[in-house]
Structures are given as structure tokens and as C-alpha cells.
Amino acid sequence: MSNDGSLNPESVLSQLKSNNITHVVWLPDSETNWLYLLMKDEPTIELVPVSREGQAFSVAAGLSTGGKKPVILIQNTGLLESGDSLRGWGIGLKTPVVMLIGYRGWTRHGKNAFHDVAKFTEPFLIAMGINYYLVENDGDIDRISYAFDEARENSKPVAVLVGDEYSSWN
Amino acid sequence: MIDTLEMLKIFKSYRGKSVVIPGRGGKHWVKLSDNPSRDIPLGDPAMGGHASYAFGLALAIPDETVILFDSEGDLLMNTGALATIADLAPKNFYHFLLDNECYATTGGQPVPNAQKVDYTGLAKSMGYGSTYFIDNLEDFDQKISEILSQDGPVFIHLKINPEIENVPINQRVRWQNRSWDQVLNDIKTELSLK
């Protein structure tokens, strides 16, 4: 863990490993490439690339039915696309999965400078009844484990919004 | 064109101990199956996700054979799933596509370009190593053993007769005889995953 106020991919990967994650179902975005490079070389985790984010929820549901422990790694833009899949394959089948969501456009100042999608992200999660944790830097990293605990205990998806994707992950 | 019920009657004698996700064939399969604890009849949690769900399950349980009866309307919603499946290529996955050229449960409206889409060609170009196109019951009977004897993922495009439903949703008889919770609990118990 670093003390420079940033969120480091090594810290995220460490959380995935300590929570015994078996598969990362993901669709890359430019901000998570460093994490991808780390995961690619991690023998305990299998990467499952999808071509549209809604696909991630049905893949994760299948993995979960089969006794594995997946995590979904997508961007908030793709989360919005995934609504019906999240409803049916995630909430409907009670899939205990954590979604790591790149919070594109978000700033701590409440000013959505980069992309309008930030305005819709939290209202969308609230509307779907999905609890979420915000992770900005390594000091917040334990929240990822809180999310895994909550997903397991409540048998439902839980979101982790990665709020620092622009400044530190690349 | 193939009658789905007759096709499933033939398939039943070949399913062995495989895990079967009957998809749109579920209404027939729940009456035919003699091993329901290895069936996952979910109906339609969210259209467009059956292939990905079955694929995820196949990845998770590589020592079990996983058989999906997908539908063309479902696959058209998420054709990119074929690329993901072909990429990780689970050897235990058999992907049957029930193609009736229409949205049968909403009244029989045609799917886009219903009669011309080459699903076998699509699967092959996405990277499936083995594909079949079958449009009659005799060929299905003749080829099913060969299909299930090879490594997956195998894609089998079946042209089937549409069974169009046009009764209002609230007047239809529910064919599912177990809840989603029960289905998932049963399969996890059967596979000792709990």
C-alpha cells in the first residue's frame, strides 16, 4: 500500500487475492490497463473478457452457480447498459458478485467535468437497490473487502466505485 | 424444420449425466427429464444472457458436460458472447441453438433478417472449432452421438418449428415447476458445490 494518496493497482489485486477471487469478468477501459497487466500475470485469477458489459453479469452468474467467485470489472458507462442483465442474472438469481466500476467523470468536488455519465451512476445504483462503496485511494482499499462480505452475506451484487481512475491507474 | 419436443425426446437418451440448461426448450424438457437435479430451467432471467450464463457455468465445472439450448432471439441480443466462448473454449460446452426465426413468445414476430442469418457461419467465424447445421429430425438423430463425443465448444444450429404463444402473459400456464432458488440449490447440491 502506498502513502502518496493514490490508488494503486497492486492494492486492488491484493484485495482480489485475499478474497479468493477466481475470475475477473471484464471489459477493458483505458484507465485499468495497468491492473490488466497485473492480473494477466496472476496465476490464481482467470480473466474472462466480454464484449459488452451486460454479458458480464450472466457470465458471473454462471461462474457463481458453478461454485466459483467472480468479480466484474467494468466502467460506469457499461453499467448503465447492463441494467436488465444486472436485474435478472445479478439480483434475480441472487448472484453474490462485486462490481468494480470505473467512475468515469466523477470528481470529489461534485463537478462532473469529464463525462455526463457520472451524474447517472449513483442514482442508477440506488434505483436498482445496489449498495456501493467509493474507493479513491489506498486508504479506502479495505472497502473492497467490505463489499465482498456484503455480497456474500446478502446474496446480491454490490458495487465498488473506483473514483480515482484518471489520476493514478496509468 | 424440427419439432422441439421430438428432438428433445431423442436428446434425452444421450444426455447422460450432463448438466442441461434447456432455455426456450424448458417447457418440454421439464416434462421429459428423468434427472431434474442436473437441469437448470431458468426460463428467462434476462433475455440475451443464456449463452454467457451456460459458458460461465462450463468454465466453473470443467469436469462436467454442460449443454445449452439457446434461442436465436436470445443470441442476437448478445452475439459477442460467441467470441468470448470461443476465446476461452471450454471443452465441456455444447451450444445448441433453437432457431424458429421469430419471437414466438410475443406472438411470432420475425427476428431481424429471420430466414437469412447464418448462425453456423457466425459461430465459426467467431472461433468455434466445430459447428453443425441441422434442419430435420432424422439428421439430428444420426449426428447427436457424434456431436457429443467431441471436445467443445461445439455449436449446433437447429431449425425448429415455431410454437407461437399469443395469449396474454397473465393468462399463460407457468411451465416452471421449481423457483430459481430451488433450481440453483438443487444443482449445487447435486454437484457438491455447497
Instruction: Decide which structural class fits the backbone of chain A.
Output: alpha/beta
Strand content of chain B: 15-25%
Q: What's the overall geometry of chain B?
A: globular
% residues in beta strands of chain A: 15-25%
**Helix count, DSSP H or I runs of 4 or more residues of chain A:** 8
Mean pLDDT of chain B: 96
Instruction: Figure out the total of helices of chain B.
Output: 8
The H/E string of chain B reads HEHHEHHEEEHEHEH
Global morphology of chain A? globular
Tell me how many strands of chain B there are: 7
| Helicity of chain A, as a percent range | 40-55%
Biggest chain contact: A-B, 31 and 34 residues
Strand order of the largest sheet of chain B: 1-2-3-7-6
**Mean of residue pLDDT of chain A?**
90
> Cα distance, first to last residue of chain A?
16 Å
Oligomer: heterodimer
Rounded radius of gyration of chain A (Å): 15 Å
Largest sheet, spatial ordering of strands of chain A: 2-1-3-4-6-5
Low-confidence stretches of chain A: none
Structure overview:
The complex is a heterodimer of chains A (170) and B (194). Chain A is an alpha/beta fold. Helix content of chain A is 44%, strand content 16%. Chain A has eight helices and six strands; from the N terminus they run αβαβαβααβαβαβα. Chain A has helices at 9-18, 33-40, 53-65, 76-81, 83-92, 117-127, 142-154, 165-168, and strands at 23-26, 46-49, 70-75, 98-102, 132-135, 158-162. In chain A, strands 2-1-3-4-6-5 form a six-stranded parallel β-sheet, sandwiched between helices. In chain A, helix 1 crosses helix 2 (33-40) and helix 3 (53-65) packs parallel to helix 5 (83-92). By secondary structure, chain B is of the alpha/beta class. Chain B has eight helices and seven strands; from the N terminus they run αβααβααβββαβαβα. Chain B has helices at 4-12, 26-32, 50-60, 72-76, 81-88, 119-126, 137-149, 180-190; strands spanning 19-21, 66-71, 93-99, 102-103, 109-110, 130-134, 154-159. In chain B, strands 1-2-3-7-6 form a five-stranded parallel β-sheet, sandwiched between helices. Chain B has a two-stranded antiparallel ribbon with strand order 4-5. Chain A binds chain B through residues 23, 25, 46, 48-52, 54-55, 57-68, 70, 84-85, 87-89, 92-94, and chain B through 40, 42, 44-61, 78, 80-81, 83-84, 87-88, 180-181, 184, 187-188, 191, 193.
